[in-house]
Every structure is written in structure tokens, then in C-alpha cells.
Design brief:
single chain, Arp2/3 complex 21 kDa subunit ARPC3, 6 helices, 2 strands
């Protein structure tokens, strides 16, 4: 048991560090606002979920964003963007993990990533409407003329495209790593 905990601790630390470094490689997607960027830092969280379960994925999402906040800060010192990134990652990774857990094939992972992408897009639209955008509007003097239109025309399609791009890259890695992940997984042993 002690060896398992050490393996999990080290694995989560390594995957969190990798996710943090990957956060530096990001790009906007025209015609969306330039602050909406795609990065691949959720991929280590997917791997953490498969190796260590949902807690591993959540810890990777929290640690990578904490590292990012403490090293780069944010506007007005408020970690609203980092908190939104944590929720986005969790809403993407966890549904994918739970579906794949029941359908452990490449087709199952493809379906799981599709559902994870839908979860990311729909739930982040809801969170943006009720929590994230109001926080930006109130605390950071951010302005959006029409919040509903901004979410429907910006946030929702952006998250769908982001989910598709990250899913494609993850599937390319997963197809090569699936056997290794299954052998190394703490949750299956």
C-alpha cells in the first residue's frame, strides 16, 4: 500500500508538472477572442485519470492551475481564469473517464471523448452564464454587450472545437499508450 501511494504521489506530481509546461503552448482560434486559447494541458489529466482514477485527474487540474497562477498571476490578482480552467478540465476529463471505464476499447474512448467534449461545451456555457462571466463583469470591469449571444456564438462553439482538437491529439497518444496505461493503472490492479 505504501508503494502504491508513493507511485501515485510521484505520478500525479510528474503529470501536473507536465500539464503546467504544456500550458505554455497555446493558441487562439480565429474568429474567437484571442484570450480564448487551446492548449493540451488536459492530456496529462486524462492520463492521470486512467492511471490513478478521478482524484488523480482532479489533482492534476488543480496543481497545474495553481502553478500557473503562482508563476504568472492574473489580471487584478484574481484567479478567475485559473478556476474556470480547473472546472473546464474536470468537466472534460471526468465524463470521459467514467464512460471509458465501462467501455474499455478504442471505440469506447472515442465515444467517451465525444461525451466529454459535449460536457465541456454545455457545462462551461452554463458556468459562464451564471458564474464566470458575472465574476469577470463585477470584479474585473470586463464588458460584454450581450452575455447570451457571447456564450452561444463564442464560448459554446469554442469549447466544442477545443474538445475536438484535444480529443484528436489524445486519441493519437492513447492508441499507442493504451496497453502501457492498462498495465500501469493503479485503479485496475
Amino acid at each position: 500500500m505504501r508503494k502504491l501511494n508513493l507511485k501515485m504521489f510521484i505520478g500525479i506530481a510528474m503529470l501536473s508538472s507536465l500539464a503546467y509546461v504544456i500550458m505554455f503552448i497555446k493558441f487562439p482560434i480565429p474568429p474567437f477572442p484571442p484570450y480564448l486559447t487551446v492548449d493540451f494541458s488536459d492530456i496529462p489529466a486524462f492520463i492521470a485519470a486512467l492511471l490513478f482514477g478521478p482524484v488523480g485527474a482532479i489533482l492534476v487540474e488543480i496543481i497545474k492551475n495553481a502553478l500557473d497562477y503562482f508563476t504568472h498571476g492574473s489580471e487584478a490578482g484574481l484567479p478567475i481564469g485559473n478556476i474556470a480552467n480547473i472546472f473546464a478540465g474536470i468537466l472534460f476529463v471526468l465524463p470521459t473517464y467514467f464512460i471509458y471505464k465501462r467501455m474499455k476499447t478504442k471505440k469506447g474512448m472515442t465515444f467517451a471523448l465525444f461525451i466529454g467534449t459535449l460536457s465541456l461545451a454545455v457545462m462551461m456555457s452554463v458556468l459562464n452564464y451564471f458564474v464566470i462571466l458575472p465574476a469577470y463583469l463585477i470584479l474585473m470591469n470586463f464588458s460584454v454587450p450581450n452575455v447570451k449571444e457571447y456564450i452561444i456564438a463564442g464560448i459554446l462553439p469554442f469549447n466544442i472545437i477545443k474538445g475536438i482538437i484535444v480529443s484528436i491529439i489524445f486519441m493519437l497518444l492513447f492508441s499507442r499508450m493504451q496497453n502501457w496505461i492498462n498495465k500501469q493503472s493503479i485503479i485496475n490492479n
